[in-house]
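Contributing new complexes? Match this layout with alpha-D-galactopyranose.
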Amino acid sequence: MNDTHRIGRFYDSLDSVAYGGDYNPEQWGPEVHAEDTELMRKAGVNLATVGIFSWAKAEPAPGAYDFGWLDTHLDRLADAGVRVCLATMTASPPAWLARLHPETLPVMEDGTRLYPGSRQHWCPSSPVFRDHATRLVEQLAGRYADHPALALWHIGNEYGCHISRHCHCEVSTAAFRAWLRERYGTVDALNEAWCTDFWAQRYGDFDEIHTPRSAPSFRNPAQQLDYRRFSSDELLACYLAEKQVLERLTPAVPVTTNFVPVARTLDLFRWAPHLDVVSYDSYPDPHDADSAHGTAFSYDVMRGLKGGQPWLLMEQAPSAVNWRRRNGRKPDGRMRLDSWQAVAHGADSVLFFQWRQSRGGAEKFHSAMVPHGGPDTRIFREVGALGAELAALPELFGSRPERADAALLLEWPSWWALELDAHPSSDVTLLDTALAHHRPLYDASVACDIVPADGDFSPYRLLVVPNLYSVSSATAERITDYVAAGGTLVMSYFSGITDEYDRVHLGGYPAPFRELLGLRIEEFDPLPEGVTLPLGDAGTGSLWSEDIVLEGAEPILALGDGRPAVTRHTYGDGTAWYLGTRPDPATLRTLMDRIRTEASVAPTEADLPEGVQVRTRITTDGRRLRIGLDWRDGSVSVTEQE
Ligand code: GLA
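Output block (do not edit by hand):
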């Protein structure tokens, strides 16, 4: 059964946008459970995510499963009309696994082993861990396959969140070698790709290769890059091992896993095809007055992972979190605004971490839908009001987010390569650049999709390519073809520099894009911290400058010292813009307004005041629902467009 069919079951099981959160009934007694059911009804909860951290309770000793308690809760939820997103419980193994198999504990690059007592203390390459995890999943799937509450499987939790750099134990090292063998076939091919004649790094055998552990100086860049690929793949293999069990035993039930705020760790475009629906955990900081844009960007990424398909907001905080230095609460109405922002950008759920605020443990000061203070609280009143509001708009659920005319290209391996050490500047980082170039579109309420390097650019009039440092010849050709066919490209500095093994594309930077951009770059000249150069008549450039030699491109803006810094080149039927510095926000806005206007890319609505965002969702019967988010006063409006 393919994912389109499976996900249908999820949509069939609910009447409106999924509303609820992580539910951890094992932390409470029967009186509280009774109150939970009642309060869920009051709050309009229709979906609870159950069992994320329940492994120790469900398997108190190896192979001794105890699901009686879970049966009771699932039955209770089903009776109350609440559907369940059931976790496979494998996010955190019980303490007995580490006692019996200490080799399942992860080892950091300096050799430090991480111990139980927190969570996520497992080595992704460990066959012992995978074996215990999949056995638990078999039990769960066998037992609950036909349970009326089951709407969706939630595999693991936030893969790669705490152990972002994988593991360096002996088992992981052997797995890395096997992965390299598979990728390169021969050690000579690896030597060639990794440029190991540099610093006497040549290998005679795969068994001489290690994961990039602590070393005296810079480690081989291609080794680091492959290790990142390997780490993402190993976590994906853990996910897939569980998914295979579920597909075998519950082929009709869709599966998901929740991704952490757009993080480098996982190559999400490689993961997404294996999820029936993408899920995301979002935690904007109430103390950050500017957080709405970054959040919108991450939501655009989630929508882009499956080509525009709606996604699930699996977690957000009703108010404060507990893990920042100072954890601000969300002011009145902010939780509603945050929730509608997710829906506007394509979410089909508004779910929280968590239902009831824990009494003990490390997250007792993290807000929840039912706070320590109980239901007679501002948070619970807001939770109830939002639940009622969403339930009153059933047509939203399953509606399609409108496709944008602009797209931004995001590519994980290039992101990893860009941020390797020993570069012209350590301050050139991908999220910073991507956000800076997404921002002028966002501020003008121009919708923007996110596309992978191997995606289809043809539906878009404008393609923004921030810092595509590493690029294969095939991708470079596709970007070139897109422009030749009439597309408009905006590419920022330090793009097209190396290939997928981090070897420089020779022939003058950026060799694969020289002809397209109509220029070459002789030398990079990153600017010192805090230094800006005049740019054009009134602007400034920061972070980066370079010596651009024009080869057909027209200089649009120059730095104060006369070097061209923004150029435009007609190529085939299209136009290629190039930015050789980071313009200040106002200059970048003016520039992007001009570029997108020339490319006929318009805001989602004419004459919107700054601070107002509008996005449209199209219902299954073709109606257009306009969601307006006013960040100036925090108001939200949902109306049907003519
Ligand atoms: C993550 C986890 C949750 C919880 C929240 C707290 O998103 O998935 O279990 O720890 O953070 O913000």
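Reviewers usually confirm one structural detail per submission. For this one: Residues 180 and 380 are 52 Å apart (CA to CA).
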